[in-house]
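User: quick one - fold this with adenosine-5'-triphosphate bound?
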Amino acid sequence: MSDRIKVAVRVRSPQGNGPIVCRASSDTVSLINDDKKSFRISSPQKKAAKEFTYDYCFSPTNSIAQDQAEIYEKLIRGYVLHTLEGYNSCILAYGQTGSGKTFTMMGDQNHEGVVPRFCRELFEVFHICHQDDSNELTTEFQVKCSSFEIYNEQVIDLLSSGSQKRCKIRERADKSTFVEGLEEVDVANVDEIIECIHRGNENRTVRSTHMNQESSRSHAVFHISVYQKETDSKTGTVVECRSTCKLVDLAGSERLGSGDTKMKHEGTSINKSLSTLGRVISLLAEADRHKSPLVPYRESALTWILKENLGGNSNTCLIACVSPENYHESLSTLRYASLTKRVRTSATLNSLSHIEQMEDLKSKLRELQKMVNDKKSTNPGQHILEKRVEDIQRTNFFLEQRMAKEAQISAQVLQTAQQERDALAWITLHIIESFDWGQAESNHEICNRSSQLQKAFEEDLSFFDDAFQKYCA
Ligand SMILES: Nc1ncnc2c1ncn2[C@@H]1O[C@H](COP(=O)(O)OP(=O)(O)OP(=O)(O)O)[C@@H](O)[C@H]1O
Ligand SMILES: [Mg+2]
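Assistant: Sure. Structure tokens for the protein plus adenosine-5'-triphosphate:
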């Protein structure tokens, strides 16, 4: 599902809440929002007003509670459904310092923001969708969350107890990125996830600046992973699905002025990572023209973590916050938001049925076979590996036969088949990972590795022989 990043602009009046049309009296900026989709920005010094169109535009009304609810209902609610359907999502709040990003994402005691509302509905919507499940259909639902900040380019775990825990960003084989070693909390209900949100907020780096009493000095990410497993005991069908959602409150861009060295260092890091984000977005926005641009994701921790959400498998939404006290900063945010609208991501369903898992396994097996064929030579360990592949293929064949009889098998048998599949996956991976062709330079080393593999495999082979006796005899 290839789609544009959805972009909304939220304008707050300089006083916090105020008139429906946002006109900042002192500094001559006038932001006029007639039709909920566009903003016209003008100042008396500039002759022509500039107009920008977005997916949504939100101006303040006289009720903050209503404003917070409207943003959630019109813009964010759909992402709860995307997440439950098995798609990855990401919601980012961007804007100058003091423009209301943290207020939009977290809210305050009386006006909850996007993050707590999203988490509440995640559990509520899941239970609504599954309350009519029959006896045959059971759905497992597991939610884990983590919370971290990017402070001066360092990733810091906000949920770890004790001293500050710094984490590294790693890349997976499929080129997506993740933060290694984060505290992931299993949350069973709304109260537990809300508790994690609060804990993360308490540990985040915040400081008073001349623009904002409680200015965020870091980019904060609340990360949710959802795992669902639906089993139909009547037909034996199993569908597993995993999805993630990143809820990101960025630090605000700011002019570096007065302040101590620490604050200046923070400000420089914030501006640097936001300018890398800007460059990444503008390259991705031009992506159609320059087929595959070299995107500098790695140049900042922020863009490296958000790689998948900006240019890959994700449904992404940007909320650009504007506080129209300064014409140039407001214009710059509106331009940034307008550019982001041109970026396309391609969310794919992260769901695998039992049969698809088997297909996946088969393709891994083909890869392994190819590797073995490519390396056909004088290697003394060669025949052992070939034998292993044959054994795996044999087991795979039995499993396939089992799949054909799927309609007749009971839930108990199905469970055993899944264990076999997992063991088979383990062995396939084990062989691929353990046998490092690039490193194995000498025949001697190959021999050693082969005998290790043989030992590991023999243990597992007895398992498969049992399975064979049980199902195919
Ligand atoms: N729409 C709004 N209505 C009422 N008050 C608001 C609104 N937006 C922000 N505020 C208030 O304005 C102040 C600054 O907002 P906030 O901290 O959310 O800004 P920010 O964009 O996160 O800034 P920074 O980049 O410095 O972290 C806070 O006291 C917040 O409660
Ligand atoms: Mg903030």
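One thing worth noting: The first strand starts at residue 2 and ends at 4.
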